[in-house]
Design goal:
By secondary structure, this protein is mostly helical. About 10% of the residues are buried. It has six helices and no strands.
């Protein structure tokens, strides 16, 4: 998903991969809400990852005087935080499902 997020828009990836991955995820015993959270973080990470990095080009369009390498250096801490969040959610999947479980009862 991360590699696909580097080249394709998130809506296209979700439409192409979810029908294939959802039966596998549920058959393996994983929570679909957890998978949705992981999928969303992956798509957001793909939007700020080169070579396409759509959000990087949007920021460059808003501030054309700032170079793309400067924008990449500024986005790197956020990319690192997203990778750490994915790892934490994979180790402790209850974090992603705690709030929906409390709200839904």
């Amino acid at each position: 998903l991360l590699v696909a997020g580097c080249f394709l828009p998130p809506a296209a990836i979700i439409l192409m991969t979810t029908p294939i991955l959802m039966p596998v995820i549920t058959a393996a015993g994983f929570d679909p809400i957890w998978f949705g959270v992981i999928l969303t973080i992956n798509m957001e990470l793909g939007l700020i990852t080169p070579p396409v990095g759509l959000n990087l080009f949007v920021i460059n369009g808003i501030t054309p005087d700032v170079s793309l390498p400067t924008i990449l250096r500024g986005a790197f801490p956020f990319m690192l935080c997203m990778v750490i969040a994915i790892v934490i959610l994979c180790v402790f999947p209850e974090i992603a499902t705690w709030l929906p479980a409390k709200v839904m009862g």
